[in-house]
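Batch manifest, entry 17 of 40.
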Amino acid sequence: MSGLEAVIGLEIHVQLATRTKMFCGCELSFGDHANVHTCPICLAHPGTLPVTNERAVIYGLRIAAALGCEVAPRSIFHRKNYFYPDSPKAYQISQYDFPLAGPGELGGIRVHRAHLEEDAAKLIHVGESGRIHGSGASLVDFNRGGTPLVEIVTEPDLRSAAEAREWAQLLRATLRQLDVSNVNMEEGSLRVDANVSVRPEGSGELGTKSELKNMNSFRFLERGIEAELERQRELIAAGEEVQQETLHFDPSDGSLTPLRSKEYSHDYRYFPEPDLVPMVPTEEMLEEARRDLPEPPAARRERYVSELGVSEGAAATLAFEPAYGEYFERAMGAPGGGSAAATAIWVTGELVGSLRQADAEEEPLASKATPEAVRALAGLVEEKKISNGAGKQVLAALVAEGGDPAAIVERDGLGQISGSGELEAIVDRAIEAEPEAADEVRKGNPKAIGRIVGAVMKESKGRADGDGVQKLILERLGQG
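Output type: structure tokens
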């Protein structure tokens, strides 16, 4: 239905990479045997008292600083009351009225709040029904229960599923650079919920929203939002009302299944946690959180484009993939070699491809192809001392064995053939071998030149410059 715009807000749960849980001394784990990292506190035995993890608070403050949020001078924990098997206390310790941090902004999208809380345990559904009765069962692994979380809530500023995916990716890149979480969606370290609604274009009112829960990849996030937007538009077109509810998106078939009616905050009966004192960050804690705060990915991307002339696509890869960004920075710190734009293309394109082709699992900085060598290689191609095709051969050698690009060019005879008699002879033989293509070019069909260029590149083993070859072919055929 036309005339309806999307209104999307995200709620992101980030597992913090502390050594221990939020309110007890149990170590964090992933993939260990079930229920081996538990204690009376995280299992909610009577009489036990929680103690706030100071490192989790520091990480929360660091996230708040990176998002430009206002840090509350005093914040408190609340009990969020609900009964479910993954919560042994029958409540979650979270923050409500007085969160850790208030309004902020990232990538043009407003952040409403960021607050600390604890994670729930993990439910494992087995058998046909996945319920305790009948042939199935639900098992509970309390290892995850009590893991420190920061929940980040945006304002409803996103206007499409693609924009939501891109912003979530920007947030993940930002958090990864902060070194506060591994932000691995497959392990559940980063979980994204989407609040989705539609409204008439130009309206300032918000429509009835639904919530999509725990989508575990950015692709599924985008697909799930698109499916829900389509569902809501179809309901409105049919004269029906959108219900406020929580939905599950199944990526295998694209279906949306209601889980429950969406709760309001008063359903949880929030009240202050009596066993925890208020949090009042000291100036020392704030200084530690802000210390050595890395350049945000959005700012880094803009700097690469505006100051270094790097293409938008390459700049996004370098900004959002810290390993390749650091590799590029090292390369640009080397004396001589290719320009920033040329080096960025080789790092984000050919280097990524060569490492994958070689099944290299290490970080790019651990590769035998050093940043200095790749920038030198980019310079050889940029200065037309070798062709782009020969450059790819040199890079493959660098990934396999390391070394100096110029030495590899000399050893393997990869120096570029330019306007020499050798190249002219190769072009003449290619024209003779492709008479039909040559006639088509003479008749004014420029696309036919590709077969002749391919023959030249094959005989020259990629050492000829493609643009120079095309120009010489056209001259030979009277079309130059």
